Structures are given as C-alpha cells and as structure tokens.
Amino acid sequence: MAELSVKHLLGIKYLNESDIQLIFETADHFKEVINRSIKKVPSLRDITIANIFFENSTRTKLSFELAEKRLSADVINFSAGQSSVKKGETLIDTVNNILSMKVDMVVMRHPNPGAGIFLSKYVNASIVNAGDGAHEHPTQALLDSYSIREKLGSVPGKNVVIVGDILHSRVALSNIFALKLQGANVKVCGPKTLLPKHIESLGVEVETDLRKALNWCDVANMLRIQNERLDISYFPTTREYTQQFGVSKKLLDSLDKEIVIMHPGPINRGVEITSDVADSKQSIILNQVENGVAIRMAVIYLLASKIK
Description:
This protein is α/β, with parallel strands linked by helices. 38% of the residues lie in helices and 14% in strands. It contains 11 helices and 9 strands. The protein has helices at residues 17-34, 59-70, 91-99, 115-120, 138-152, 170-181, 210-216, 238-245, 249-253, 275-278, 285-304; strands at residues 48-53, 74-79, 105-110, 126-132, 159-163, 185-189, 205-206, 219-222, 260-262. It has a 5-stranded parallel β-sheet, sandwiched between helices. A 4-stranded parallel β-sheet has the order 2-1-3-4. The two termini are 16 Å apart.
C-alpha cells in the first residue's frame, strides 16, 4: 500500500505532491463511505485520538471529530478554556498527561506558530496541525484543493486568487503551498496593509484591483477579516473594505466569465461576500464542508497506518 512520506501533518510545506495525490485518492474512497446509509468503517477501531484545542473552533473541531468517529476511533476532546492550562500548565505537561492515557494521535489547534512542530519533537504520538496561529492550516488547504479538483476536474494550470486578509491567514499560506505544489497559478488580492511584505517570494503575484483579479481567475477563495487577530486598524472602515474587496452578485454577473467561489468559513455575510453570492450556484462552500470530513478521514487513516 502507498504511504505518506511524513509521520505527522504539521504543514503543507512538509508534504510532496505524491502525498497530496494519495490523500485525495483516499478521500475519494471515504467520500463514498460518507454517502452510504451506514457511514462508519471499522478501520481505526484500536486507535485513540485526542483533539486538543487551545483556540476556539467550531467547524474544524466538529469536522475532525466526525471524521474520527466515522473511522471508529476512540476520541478524547480537550478544550483549553476549561482546563488546567488556565492554571499555568505547560503545553508539554498537558500533552504528556493525555499521552499517559495511551493516546496514538493528537489533533491540535494552538495560537502559537510552530506549536505542532515543537510538540512532535517531544511526544511519541502522531501530530495533526489543526491550525497554529497565523502560520498553517494544512487540512483546510487540502480540502480546498480537493474541492477545486472535484468541481473543475483538476488543479494544475488553474488560476486561483485568494482575496482578503492574507497577512493574518493560516488558510492563505497553506493554500499557497498546496496550490503551487500542484501546479496552479496563484494571485493574492487585498488591501496593501493586509498583504505580507515578501509574499511574491512564495511564487504568487499581487493584484490590488479586485475586478482584474476576478476576471483573471477560475476560482476565488474569499477570506474573512480576522478581527480577533487585528491589534490595530488595517483599513478605515468595514464598509470601505467591502466596497473595494467584497464580492456581490452584481459584480459576479458583470464579469467576462463564470468563476467558482470558495470560502473557508465562518463567513462574514455582507463583508467579504454577500448572502446571494454565498448561496449561489457558483459557490462551493457547502461542498468544502462535506469534503472536509472526507479529507480529514483520509489524513487520519493514512497517518494511523504509520503508527507502530
């Protein structure tokens, strides 16, 4: 059986192209499983997975939990808000306590970039990064690419623009890595204050005119403004941001062609996209949610097969 080149999923930048293809092929299989009347497979009956979230999350946490349960794994959920972390316990102590319960895999979201990498050096379990600060969010990028492949047939050669708060977005960075690895063309679009200084060094082009960006692309991935990470004001008002970088149905209909709209969620309706765009036939936002479970099943299954 083909296997991943890595023991952990810490970020897209540690994967190669054949890892991504293997994850997609495995997800194809699990997508069939999800659509059956009996949605569970006994693949990971003897594997215990701990979901450790040091930051709030609804969709990612639910998606991982559902993926784990569909694979028949034993699941422990741990939320830092209601735990000894508040009493000053360190990351390693927290995880070692959980590992002493004989956990095989840890799915972790943490506010500090590199937390998963740090952890992988000290604990014996397989680590899945469910988002580390503004650094990476690998499963989101995988499900985004998988959704493009499903909608357009393939990813190589496609034109993808990522619009919005690129500076604070782990989704943007992971998506850039994943799309470039598969041979897609990538542009970023947003206010100059929300674009990282040396973004071109990642092989992407900057476009500050939204209409030009949309006319160029096959797919627009719309990011929300990460208000919880904005310590200063990066643009005058939300209304002004929406006028320059928000996508409405009127704007979509005025383009030269029909493009695909994506969003990693949660959506700020009326800011980066209007409701009639989010709910339109050009939007694949709900497909992304469904594909998220299949992709996470694939990642967990493939990593579990490497646990000795």
